[in-house]
């Protein structure tokens, strides 16, 4: 195996572990379990993980849990401390509270209280695909409005290439990533007429995560009867099914953050729903360069569930 192929295989295995951790935060994740998922010896896995991501395994798992905790405390008032503790794999609320305070310097109850007091200033930080400076509060908070539908989505198989880093670096590398995705999909004969949706999946909440660690996957849906061969560049995962609100937008390139803000602030807050702890994503419905107006037709999917009162 060439050096490049070997590196690609290591990347593929680390991506698998990252996805596994995200989907199993409610469990106590042992080194044996994670090493097995990656296909590495448990005696060497921690060093390999840290070498690839420049972050110790235990720190990574704890950071992902803490970032999810911020989201739940801020946006899921229907969940108490015990609910959040169990959802994130802690044995009880006391253990969760100690871990949270050790990480952030305040208790989860204090954070929730302060967030609720100051949410007007911080809510608009949910800016996925952010390529403009944060907007100040103005009379016209939502210059972009979309048509809203609610769908129950079936689970889908997707092939993906992944970017880790800020949204600014993502914007610079976007075209190359897209070309890579289609080249590998074509090589594996994954492209089927009218059956491949192009989408971007955002694995980290930009309101709470570390910018340099944001994970974004550019994906193509692939029919279930076609096997995706993972090779370190191209990965395979499941797009989670369930209830989603879909915002249908026709926008210019610089208006993506406005569209996301419309979804999270204007629609969601009065909808009777709350965000479900899963990944949001964008589905790209046209080629904006095919017309003089350069309009982007995009559907934004946000996972939701009814508010429990």
TrEMBL record:
Keyword Transcription assigned: yes
SMART domains for this protein: AraC_E_bind, HTH_ARAC
Keywords attached to this entry: DNA-binding, Transcription, Transcription regulation
Residues of the HTH araC/xylS-type domain: 15-114
SUPFAM superfamilies, per database record: Homeodomain-like (SSF46689), Probable bacterial effector-binding domain (SSF55136)
One annotated GO molecular function: DNA-binding transcription factor activity
A Pfam family the protein falls into: HTH_18
Keyword Membrane part of the UniProt annotation: no
PANTHER family assigned: TRANSCRIPTIONAL REGULATOR YGIV-RELATED (PTHR40055:SF1)
Name of the protein in question: AraC family transcriptional regulator
UniProt organism field: Clostridium drakei
């Amino acid at each position: 195996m060439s050096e490049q192929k070997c590196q690609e295989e290591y990347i593929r295995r680390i991506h698998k572990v990252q996805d596994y951790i995200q989907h199993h935060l409610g469990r106590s994740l042992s080194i044996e379990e994670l090493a097995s998922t990656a296909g590495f010896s448990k005696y060497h896995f921690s060093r390999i993980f840290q070498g690839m991501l420049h972050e110790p395994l235990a720190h990574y798992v704890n950071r992902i849990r803490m970032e999810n905790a911020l989201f739940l405390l801020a946006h899921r008032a229907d969940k108490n401390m015990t609910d959040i503790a169990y959802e994130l794999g802690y044995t009880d609320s006391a253990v969760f509270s100690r871990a949270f305070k050790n990480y952030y310097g305040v208790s989860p109850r204090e954070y929730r209280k302060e967030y609720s007091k100051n949410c007007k200033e911080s809510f608009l930080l949910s800016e996925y695909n952010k390529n403009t400076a944060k907007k100040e509060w103005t009379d016209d908070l939502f210059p972009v409005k979309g048509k809203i539908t609610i769908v129950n989505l079936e689970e889908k198989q997707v092939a993906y290439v992944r970017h880790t880093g800020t949204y600014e670096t993502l914007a610079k590398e976007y075209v190359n990533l897209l070309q890579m995705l289609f080249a590998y999909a074509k090589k594996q004969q994954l492209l089927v007429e009218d059956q491949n949706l192009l989408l971007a999946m955002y694995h980290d909440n930009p309101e709470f995560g570390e910018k340099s660690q944001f994970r974004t996957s550019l994906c193509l849906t692939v029919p279930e009867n076609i096997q995706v061969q993972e090779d370190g560049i191209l990965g395979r995962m499941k797009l989670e099914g369930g209830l989603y609100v879909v915002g249908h937008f026709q926008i210019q390139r610089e208006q993506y953050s406005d569209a996301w803000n419309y979804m999270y602030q204007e629609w969601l807050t009065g909808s009777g729903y709350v965000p479900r702890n899963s990944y949001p994503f964008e589905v790209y419905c046209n080629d904006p360069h095919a017309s003089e107006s350069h309009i982007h037709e995009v559907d934004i999917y946000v996972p939701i569930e009814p508010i429990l009162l």
